[in-house]
Specification:
The chain has five helices and no strands. With 197 residues, it is mainly alpha-helical. Helix 1 runs antiparallel to helix 4 and helix 3 packs antiparallel against helix 4. The mean pLDDT is 92.
Length: 197
């Protein structure tokens, strides 16, 4: 929780700074221009976060007894890198949906700075997660802002979609539906009290 608490304000300041202080992006008046820019941002995120994870695991295997994945040989570094890679693969899909959804609802080059800010913060959060994970499992919480940012943007996009369908009620339905599922998951996955207590 300390790592998450420390990382969140830094990520928020960085996102706000890029969104409001960087110059507006040119050529963003069409949906095609915005989608192309989002694709470029997504490519950078995949290169720096997903591909580097693949490379880290590949290099570890190439120069160790882990070359044979079936041998069972694993160092802590390899296990962390594999878990980073798996988590990044999962988070990349969520990030992609959020990024393209956000770009779809940005009307111009000024608003599209949010897409750039989201990409930068997400990439840096992935690095923080990875580096923190190598220090301790608790320190991986430094990467939480990236996951939170993708989730917040997805909820915004879902609300906008709902609003287009049925106004304020339509906007509230997907957001409240997701919150209800989250509440259920928190309740359902709580550890059961021990029979000895």
């Amino acid at each position: 929780m300390i790592a998450i608490g420390a990382a969140m304000p830094v990520a928020l300041l960085l996102w706000v700074g890029i969104t409001y202080l960087s110059p507006p992006l040119a050529g963003m008046d069409t949906i095609g221009g915005r989608m192309l820019f989002a694709l470029k941002c997504f490519c950078l995120a995949v290169l720096f976060c997903l591909v580097t994870g693949v490379e880290a695991v590949a290099h570890e295997r190439l120069f160790s007894a882990a070359f044979d994945p079936l041998s069972g040989f694993e160092t802590r570094r390899l296990r962390v890198n594999q878990r980073y890679l798996q988590n990044t693969l999962e988070q990349t899909l969520v990030f992609a949906a959020a990024l393209f959804g956000l770009a779809a609802y940005c009307p111009d080059g000024s608003a599209m700075r949010a897409v750039l800010a989201t990409t930068v913060v997400w990439i840096l959060a992935r690095f923080a997660f990875w580096i923190g994970y190598h220090q301790s499992t608790a320190m991986r919480g430094l990467g939480a802002p990236g996951m939170a940012l993708s989730l917040i943007i997805l909820l915004y996009v879902a609300g906008r979609i709902g609003y287009e369908v049925s106004g304020l009620v339509g906007a509230a339905v997907p957001i409240l539906g997701f919150v209800a599922i989250e509440a259920y998951l928190f309740r359902a996955t709580r550890p059961l009290p021990s029979a000895n207590h």
